[in-house]
Amino acid sequence: MTDETDSRPARPAVAAHRPAPDLAPPLPPSPVRTSRLLWIGSFIAGLVVVGIAVLHREAHSEQLTALVEGIAPGRAEETLESVATVVFVAALVALGVVITVQALLLRAMMRHHGSSRMLMLALLPVHVFVAVLADTFLALGPEGIYLRGLLVLQFALAVSGVIAALLPSAAAWFRGADAGRRAGGRQAG
């Protein structure tokens, strides 16, 4: 065996002493990271609202039934309870859909898709509508003031997140990613 190892040629020397390329994506600038934290805070506030509403659904059911009865007096009790349940679930689903869409847009934004910032901005009026809907039908009873405060906090964090994502250094980061994608597409084509 020693004869075979001696007969092999020596390994060639490395021609270039350059380190391997760094393939890690660059860190986003602080406004983009701040925007991400603000959006995550907004999601948490919205999920807390949903959680509190679900935990207190029996009390909400009674209060919503009274609210629906004030709108449509003289209806059967079963009808009022059914309408109250539908309104309660619809408010929760609407809030959940807004949170989900915003989370998907945040994911796209963190992957250098700058157009998602504009979609987040366009989604803010929908967020206002859903927050008013949730405030009307979920913020009832003694815990209603806390839910209302959380809904306002959720919207304020979302607006702050959009503003942070629209700052000039964030825009430069997105433009740099777009230029890199365009250049990469030309080379591949």
Shape: elongated
Number of domains: 1
**Class of secondary structure makeup:** mainly alpha
N-end to C-end Cα span: 52 Å
Order of helices and strands: HHHHHHH
What profile does the largest beta sheet have? none
Proportion of helical residues: over 70%
Low-confidence stretches: 185-189
Please describe the structure with a list of short key phrases separated by commas or semicolons.
elongated; single chain; disordered C terminus; 78% helix; 189 residues
Q: How would you describe the overall organization of this protein?
A:
The structure is a single chain. The chain has 189 residues and is mostly helical. The chain has one domain. Helix 2 packs antiparallel against helix 4, helix 4 packs antiparallel against helix 5 and helix 5 packs antiparallel against helix 6. The longest helix has 34 residues. The radius of gyration is 27 Å and the shape is elongated. The relative contact order is 0.15.
Task: Give a quick summary of the entry.
The chain is mainly α. It has helices spanning 2-7, 30-55, 57-71, 77-110, 115-138, 144-165, 168-188.
Question: What does the secondary structure layout of this molecule look like, with pairings?
Answer:
Blueprint: H1 2-7, H2 30-55, H3 57-71, H4 77-110, H5 115-138, H6 144-165, H7 168-188
